[in-house]
From TrEMBL:
This is Streptomycin 6-kinase. Pfam families: APH_6_hur. GO terms for molecular function: kinase activity; phosphotransferase activity, alcohol group as acceptor. InterPro entries: Kinase-like_dom_sf, NH2Glyco/OHUrea_AB-resist_kin. It comes from the Bacteria.
Length: 295
């Protein structure tokens, strides 16, 4: 089994070790419950066990994870989408962290397209999956996610206090002037949009509520890490300028709001990924500084 997957489960989930021990039993249970012939797991496992399967001759995907609110929100989002603009949810058991979804073919990631084609495709997907927030919704909000930045220390880390403070300032400004919230995907980037027939569909939604402009930040951060390996900072500035202009034009959104939310999301991602043993968070700060220069 993928060593990164095993390490992630043990590191990030208190009950991870126990869950890994029960994984074979869970696979047997859902194979019987949902009439599945299980195949090989996908190679790039990270925080969930995702495997190929067949049901009545149809190719499907079984996804199992440590039961948690994030998976409950994913299930709720996929139900809301109803297969329009996203992969179809076929079965779900939120209490046991299990989802059965259709398998997409050819299933290639959006990152295979040339840069100048990706924004148009992403805008089409966004417009299909954005929905008004249902009554009595249990989706987390942008404000819930903000706690990570709000609680992050302003000293004693490698992230300058002025960067954190500017992100906080942009967050407060954007929230105070936000349009009506919708249900956002929450992690809509090149690796979470796959080719399906002649079109493209979203997978793996986080399911959060917030204004539409917030959604664009995840795209601006990606494809990771190729974005930083392909372009110099000067070239990346021009790439991001074109992206922001395209999003603003296609979606009728404010260029300034895209840039301010984008800056905030880069910094929030740096906070989430901050580590003294890895410097990936430094790329997030570079990305943030590029967007700041475009304001």
């Amino acid at each position: 089994m993928n060593p990164e997957f095993l390490a992630n489960i043990k590191l990030y989930f208190e009950e991870g070790e126990t869950w890994l021990q029960t994984l074979p039993t869970l696979l047997e249970h859902f194979a019987a419950e949902w009439n599945l012939e299980l195949g090989e797991p996908f190679e790039n496992l990270s925080f969930n066990y995702v495997t190929r399967a067949k049901r009545n001759g149809q190719d499907v995907v079984l996804k199992l994870g440590v039961p948690r609110d994030e998976l409950r929100s994913e299930i709720a989002a996929l139900r809301l989408y109803g297969g329009v603009g996203s992969v179809r949810l076929l079965e779900a058991d939120a209490d046991q962290g299990a989802l059965l979804i259709e398998r997409l073919f050819p299933g290639q990631m959006l990152s295979i397209l040339p840069e100048d084609q990706t924004v148009r495709v992403m805008c089409e997907v966004m417009q299909k999956i954005w929905h008004p927030v249902p009554e009595n919704s249990s989706f987390p909000s942008v404000a819930d996610w903000h706690e990570g930045l709000a609680e992050f220390p302003r000293s004693g880390t490698g992230i300058p206090a002025e960067v954190l403070d500017l992100a906080e300032s942009f967050y407060q400004e954007m929230q105070e002037t936000a349009e009506a919230p919708v249900v956002l995907h929450g992690d809509l980037h090149h690796f979470n949009v796959l080719s399906a027939g002649e079109g493209w569909l979203a997978i793996d939604p986080k399911g959060i509520t917030g204004e539409r402009t917030y959604e664009i930040g995840a795209f601006l951060r990606n494809p990771w890490p190729a974005l930083y390996e392909t372009y110099t900072p000067e070239e990346l500035r021009e790439v991001q300028r074109k992206r922001v202009e395209q999003f603003a034009q296609h979606l009728g959104l404010s260029r300034e709001r895209i840039l301010k939310w984008g800056y905030y999301i880069f910094v929030l991602s740096a906070v989430w990924g901050y580590s003294e043993t890895s410097d990936n968070w430094k790329k997030e700060l570079l990305g943030a500084s590029i967007l700041k220069d475009l304001l």
